[in-house]
Design a protein that fits this description.
Blueprint (H helix, E strand, L loop, with lengths): L4 E2 L3 E2 L10 E2 L2 E2 L20 H8 L6 E3 L4 E2 L2 E2 L4 E4 L8 E3 L30 E5 L4 E6 L2 E2 L4 E3 L1 E6 L27 H6 L6 E5 L28 E4 L10 H12 L2 E6 L4 E3 L8 H5 L9 E4 L21 E3 L7 E3 L3 E10 L13 E9 L7 E3 L5 E2 L9 E10 L5 E11 L3 E2 L8 E8 L5 E6 L4 E3 L3 E10 L13 E9 L7 E3 L5 E2 L9 E10 L5 E11 L3 E2 L8 E8 L5 E6 L4 E2 L4 E10 L13 E9 L7 E3 L5 E2 L9 E10 L5 E11 L3 E2 L8 E7 L1
Parallel strand pairs: 5-18, 8-10, 9-13, 15-17, 21-29, 31-39, 41-49
Antiparallel strand pairs: 1-2, 3-4, 6-7, 10-11, 11-14, 12-13, 15-18, 16-17, 16-19, 20-22, 22-26, 23-24, 23-25, 23-27, 27-28, 27-29, 30-32, 32-36, 33-34, 33-35, 33-37, 37-38, 37-39, 40-42, 42-46, 43-44, 43-45, 43-47, 47-48, 47-49
Length: about 700
Amino acid sequence: MLALVLLGTTALPQGSAAQPPSVGGCPVFPADHVWNTPIDTLPVDGQSSAYVSTIGGGLPLKADFGSGLWDGGPIGIPFITVTGSQQKYPVTFGYAPESDPGPYAIPLNAPIEGGSQSSGDRHTLAIDTTNCILYELFAAYPGSNSWSAGSGAIYDLEGYALRPDTWTSADAAGLPIFPGLVRYDEIVAGEITHAIRFTVPETRNSYVWPAKHEASDLTGAQYPPMGQRFRLKANFDISGYSPANQIILRALKKYGMILADNGSSWYMSGAPDSRWDNDDLHALAGVKGSNFEAIDESSLMIQSNSGKARQPGNYGVSWGTNQTLASMSTGATTNVSVSFTNLGALTWNHTGANRVQLSYHWRNGACNGSSVAVWDGLRTPLPDDVAQGASVANLPAQVRAPAGPGAYCLQFDLVREGITWFSSQGAAMLSRTVNVSTPVYGVSWTSQNTPGSMAAGSLQAVKLSFANIGSLTWTSTGSNPVRLSYHWFDGACPGTTVAAWDGVRTALPASVPNGSSVANLDVSVRAPAAPGSYCLAYDLVREGITWFSTQGAQKLIRTVVVSTPQWGVIWNSQSTPSAMIAGQTEDVSLSFTNSGSAAWNAAGPNPVHISYHWRTGSCPGTGPAVWDGLRSVLTTDVAPAGSVSGLTASVRAPAAPGTYCLEYDIVKEGVTWFSTAGSPKLTRTVTVN
């Protein structure tokens, strides 16, 4: 097979890395969760022989699932998928202190293990595939508008959280049930990529990770604890079994099974499905207990309260709690935060020719997507070298959506530039189904040169480039023109509360249809009056109708530290006329506030005076026509935060008629103009006759 090289860096792998099991577009826990981690190379537990003998070395393996009915109910543990709009119902629990209080998004007509008349465990399971949340109940009985149950648990299928220590769940071991079920869709897919739930008659009064609860009074070391993992021995010959059963047996060798409840010996759990061949499943009885061995998976544990499992090899990565994307606009660039841990033996160098960087791939279709849509995503450098066992927390990264609308699988991956993608070496990727659509109000930000610091109250010149990726043409004139503006939020990005919503507007040079761009637009940004750390968020506004960001468009953000300048002014009002006579002197009224840290002395050495400049053309004007205007004297010293109201200032018009930009400025004589120190000028377009 020909390897396709993109961007001259790395090759598209011959096959995709193992993906986590999924349901309705949701992962059934991340790929590096303990349920989904291979254990075929882990050591045998020292108590393996004793455990197998106690459970029954001569007893057969039993598929406790199938098609049709048994004793009036479905064969296996059924589940149902729902959307995020599913009504949630309250639940009354028999074991309330160890149950998640809910409410639970389980329909009152959801299927129940054993059927509606069952007197058994009566498990009922529901998966919210909009939010990727799993709901599970034990001993569940529906009422008219609620449930009653023995116990219950709620799981984030994209996370790693385990039950608190000593807590049960809907299962005796305090484990989730659904991730351990054999589902016929996995047979159709050709692979089961997770451990399988199973039961034994007697367990010890203890548990091992990832279990959190015991259900026994027995103390003998010959009894396996809850959570104990077993696997089918590697030398067991599966060639005589059907293709469907071989898929199950391969999973038992690679992923094994986890002890989850007291029950019959070697009974493994699955979901009922009309496609199961019960006679074929019965053939699994040819596998005996003696063909299994207990394994020690303690080396996989990173933290006792997390299902995240250590992965083997040089290129191992564990993905932490990350921002997830459910939808994006075509071509849009979105800011996300990604956390991950180095589980491999290789130190990730953040510099050099073979540095490690964060990137991503897009695949067509919902996860697990098939064909590649975009292989080489944007690169995000690591902040420092990352040694084995070290983590990168909340790394800001950018993701650019595909150009065409549709459902895609976004897969975060790491790349060792010029050598390999981590996923091609067996490392887990972080996958998420994302719906990409063409928005009405869509913008893709290309570049900015916003400084990281600004003086309080100052007006900063910035250049921005961006493109219209929405269906709406941005009109530059008319009653509802589109303009560039911004917001300020308190704190570093993404910020918290709004500090200033309506920023200075910048007109577009012309109308911008879909697919067109604006390059290096000159934008004026006024900093907040108070010093501190802020998040500057650029946005577009369709005047009189909506801000683009409120319609789902991405803002362009930048953390800016606003400091108190030594020489700062905030202009409050002016009475400048719109027309003057050439060479004539006019008196105007000005009001302003000292926003700097230094006092303005009205007299003495280097006094502070009010003055102005004239520039050719309408504001902001071009070259200076007159730089040193008349000086106006302060009547008294002005302390920081002090204000001057209604100061009479004299302004002389230029000698030549024309259109000019009048810029009021303040000067500390012999030291500096305030504007050259970053302070804003007060401008007014004046026609000189």
